[in-house]
C-alpha cells in the first residue's frame, strides 16, 4: 500500500501541495481528479522522487520513500507513465520497451515481459521495428504504458493517459488500464477525463489548488452533485 500523509511541496514561493493525505490500497485503481494546476502531476512526481517535498511522509509498504533516489523507488516496484508520453522518437518500439527494463538483469524474464506487453498491446508487436516518433498519438500512449510495465511494477502511476487522444482510442486505453489492474498491478491514475476515470476507480480523490477537498468510491463521486457540476458537466 502507498500512504501519503500531510505532504507539502513548494515550487519557489508557491505551495503546490498543502498537506495532502491519501491512500492507494494494494490491487485497487485509485484516481486523482482536478483542474489543471491543482497539483495532480506534482503528487506523482513527488512519489517518484523527481520533486522534493518540503515536509510530510510517503510510505510504500511501510517504507519511507522521501529522500530515496529515483532508481531505488523504481526498483521498489513503482513506475510512472508520464504526461505527454515522452517516448524516445528515434528509437524503435522494441528499444523503447527495453529501456523500461534498464534496471533489470534477468534477460529471460525481460523477454517474457516483452511478450506480455505485446499481448496487452498487439499493435506494438506489429510495429516493433518502427521508430516510436512515427507512431500515432494512441500508439505512443500504449508504448509509454508498455515501457513503464517493463520495470515490472507493483504500482503503476499514469499521468493523463487520455490527453489529446480520439474518443475510441481513449476507450482502448481505459480497457487496458482495467486489464493491467486485473493482472495484479495497483493503479494510481491522474486524469482530466473525470467521467472515464471515476467509472473505473475503486477509490477517488478530488484535488483543488493543492488540497484534497473530497474523497470516496468512484461511484460515490460520480453521483455527487458538486463533482458533476465542476468536472462532469451538469447533464452527466
Written description of the protein model:
The chain is of the alpha/beta class and 236 residues long. The protein has two domains: 1-77 and 153-236, P-loop containing nucleotide triphosphate hydrolases (Rossmann fold, 3-Layer(aba) Sandwich), CATH 3.40.50.300; 85-152, no CATH class. The chain has helices at 40-47, 70-75, 93-100, 107-120, 122-126, 137-149, 167-182, 194-200, 218-223, 225-232; strands at 2-11, 14-24, 29-33, 55-60, 63-64, 78-81, 155-159, 186-190, 203-208, 211-217. α3 (93-100) runs parallel beside α6. The longest helix has 16 residues, at 167-182. The model has no long low-confidence stretch (mean pLDDT 91).
Order of helices and strands: EEEHEEHEHHHHEHEHEEHH
What's the overall average pLDDT, rounded? Answer: 91
Radius of gyration over alpha carbons? 17 Å
CATH first level of the largest domain = Alpha Beta
The CATH superfamily of the largest domain is identified as P-loop containing nucleotide triphosphate hydrolases
Beta-strand portion reads 25-35%
Features:
about 240 residues; alpha/beta; Rossmann fold; 2 domains; six-stranded mixed sheet; four-stranded antiparallel sheet; 10 helices; globular
Amino acid at each position: 500500500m502507498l500512504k501519503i500523509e500531510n505532504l507539502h511541496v513548494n515550487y519557489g514561493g508557491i505551495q503546490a501541495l498543502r498537506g495532502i493525505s491519501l491512500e492507494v490500497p494494494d490491487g485497487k485503481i485509485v484516481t486523482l481528479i482536478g483542474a489543471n494546476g491543482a497539483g495532480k502531476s506534482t503528487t506523482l512526481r513527488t512519489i517518484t522522487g523527481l520533486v522534493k517535498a518540503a515536509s510530510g511522509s510517503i510510505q510504500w509498504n511501510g517504507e519511507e520513500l522521501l529522500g530515496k533516489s529515483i532508481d531505488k523507488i523504481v526498483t521498489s516496484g513503482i513506475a510512472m507513465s508520464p504526461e505527454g508520453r515522452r517516448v524516445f522518437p528515434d528509437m524503435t518500439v522494441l528499444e523503447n520497451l527495453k529501456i523500461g527494463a534498464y534496471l533489470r538483469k534477468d534477460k529471460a524474464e525481460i523477454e517474457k515481459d516483452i511478450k506480455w506487453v505485446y499481448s496487452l498491446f498487439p499493435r506494438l508487436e506489429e510495429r516493433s521495428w518502427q521508430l516510436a516518433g512515427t507512431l500515432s498519438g494512441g500508439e505512443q500512449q500504449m508504448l509509454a504504458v508498455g515501457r513503464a510495465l517493463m520495470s515490472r511494477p507493483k504500482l503503476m502511476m499514469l499521468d493523463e493517459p487520455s490527453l489529446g487522444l480520439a474518443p475510441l482510442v481513449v476507450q482502448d486505453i481505459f480497457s487496458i488500464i482495467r486489464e493491467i489492474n486485473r493482472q495484479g498491478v495497483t493503479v494510481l491514475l491522474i486524469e482530466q477525463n473525470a467521467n472515464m476515470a471515476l467509472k473505473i476507480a475503486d477509490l477517488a480523490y478530488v484535488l483543488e489548488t493543492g488540497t484534497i477537498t473530497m474523497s470516496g468510491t468512484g461511484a460515490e463521486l460520480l453521483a455527487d452533485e458538486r463533482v458533476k457540476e465542476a468536472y462532469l458537466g451538469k447533464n452527466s
